[in-house]
Amino acid sequence: MDKMERTRILVLPGVAQNASLFSGKLKTFCESLEDVAEFVFVDPTHHILVPTVNKPFEITRTTDDEPSTIDPKYAPRAWWFGESQTGFYDCKGLDASVARLRMILETQGPFDAIWGFSQGAATASLIVGLLEGPHRHPVFAAPAREGYSWPPPPFKFAIFNSGFFPKDPRVRAVSGIQTPSLHVLGRGDAVVADHESESLIVACHNPRVEFHDGGHHPPTKASWALFFRDYITSFGPGGEQGGPSVVLSPKVSPRDTLKLRSPSYFSLGGKVPKLRSLSASSGEATNDGVST
C-alpha cells in the first residue's frame, strides 16, 4: 500500500491517559504499521485532578477551560465521569466530548476508522453510531461549520480494545451499530468485566472477537502487529473487510480452534458469548502488551 493511501485511524485513549502517554506506550507498535496506517491520537476532553497532600482521598474533575498544574504530557484525562442515576449510568461530561470529537472529525478528518481503548472504546462506540445516524445527537445533527463539510461517511471499521457499552441512554440510543467492528479482549482483564465487554459486542451487528493472553492493555506482540496489518489492509479496495477466513487470528490454541472456525463466533446473531469459556487452557495471563 502506498504511503499516500495509508488508513487514517483516530485513536481514543482510556481514562487516566492522554494522547502523549498512550502514543508513547504504543510507539514501536505503531511504527511497525506506519506504512499502512496513520494513527492520530487525541486527548480525552477532561482533566482529572489527582489527590493532594491536603485532600489525599479526593479526586475531582475539571475541563480544558480550567488550568492544570501537571505537565500536559503526563496529565491524566477522561472522556466522561460515570455516575449512577435512576438505574442508568449518567456519563457526566459526555456531551462536551461529543462536541470535541465532532470538531476533530470536522477539522482534522477525514478518518477511515476509529480505535478506542477501555473508556476510549466506549466513547468510540458512540461516535461510530452517531456517524451512522447523526440525527441521534444534536451536536452531530447540527449543520457544518463554515468552510467545512459535514457529516463525513461512517467509518470503514472500528477497533474496540477492552471496550464496554455504558448504560447512559445517550449511548444506548446508538445500539445496533452496523460498522464492522473488531473487539480485542484480554483473557486476564481484571478491569472490564465479562458482561461489560459482552454489552458492547452485542450492540454491534457485525462484530469480530479476538482474545490476547494479557490483561487490561492493547496487545503488541509481533503476531498481533501482523494481524492488525492484515485486518487494516483488508478494508482497502477489493479487500475482504476483516473476514476471519482471510485475516487469520493472531494465535489459536487447540481448544479454541473449533470455536474460532465457527461463523457464529464472529457474527454473534444477538447472542451473548461466554467470553471466559474461550480462554486458553492454562488460564494464565502473560504481559504481552502495555499496561495502563
Automatic annotation (TrEMBL):
Transmembrane segments annotated in the record for this chain: none
- Any matching Pfam family: FSH1
Per UniProt, residues of the Serine hydrolase domain are 5-224
Indicate yes or no for the key word Hydrolase: yes
Which terms does the record give in the GO molecular function aspect?
hydrolase activity
Query: Could you name the Gene Ontology cellular component terms for this entry?
Result: cytoplasm; nucleus
Query: Which Gene3D superfamilies does the entry link to?
Result: alpha/beta hydrolase
Give the protein name, as stated in the record. Serine hydrolase-domain-containing protein
- PANTHER family the record matches: ESTERASE OVCA2
Could you tell me the keywords of this UniProt record? Hydrolase
